[in-house]
Fold each of these.
Amino acid sequence: MNDALVCWKCGTAWPGDGRFARLEACRRCGAELHVCVMCGRYEPHTAERCREERAEPPRDKTQANFCDYFVARSGAYAGEPPANTGARAALDALFGTGTAPAQAADDEARSALDALFKKDR
């Protein structure tokens, strides 16, 4: 595992030693770095999302904060979320894919209206 620090938002390597000023920002994307999601005590599966019981967690975990317990962690960048292709495939199977079925239904409806009002195309 690579222990290099990277930006939590874009994955750009951080040249520093893990000490961030309160408003330190990524040189590439501008994301603030002294944030909960970049901290080694960040735990997304707990109520306050922080393992430090004495900390007073801020509401927004992606905004710079004044937490004295902040410890920069490697591996904060999770990458792009994977596409949910399974759900998309299930929806396509249920409702049809692409625009062809919708277009065919539109053409059929238009033909029925034209026939009703005896309009030639």
Amino acid sequence: MNKVILLGRLTRDPEMKNTTTGKAVTRFSLAVDRRFKNKDGQKEADFINIVVWGKQAEFAAQYLTKGSQISLSGRLEARSYDAQDGQRRYITEVVADEINFVSSGQKGSSAGSQQTSAPQSANNNNMSVMGLDEDFHLMADDDDIPF
């Protein structure tokens, strides 16, 4: 089984391109915190290359930005190619199948969890979930929960 689940923040804005056949492909890097601190007591992160294809790629390029916190699931893929200098290059990346918003990357705006299959409103502080009433809005923080 090849299944990867990650939670992290985008280190740069996604870059979308189209293949020669016209299929959209978007790439970005995700900073994922390690569970433990190093010997100096500092948190460390891994920087993982992510690839998204098709409609998900178009959505990621349009709505994700540097600093956005997302979760994703997908598969790990390793490949190699011959570079222009004649050297063999090896790449390991995650091919994402599903992306969920955790926060927008803007200070003070938490979006809860939202799948990329639902369009995000232009205002990140007031995102509504597709398929629900327009009056439904995700709460900004746990202090707003009435119990």
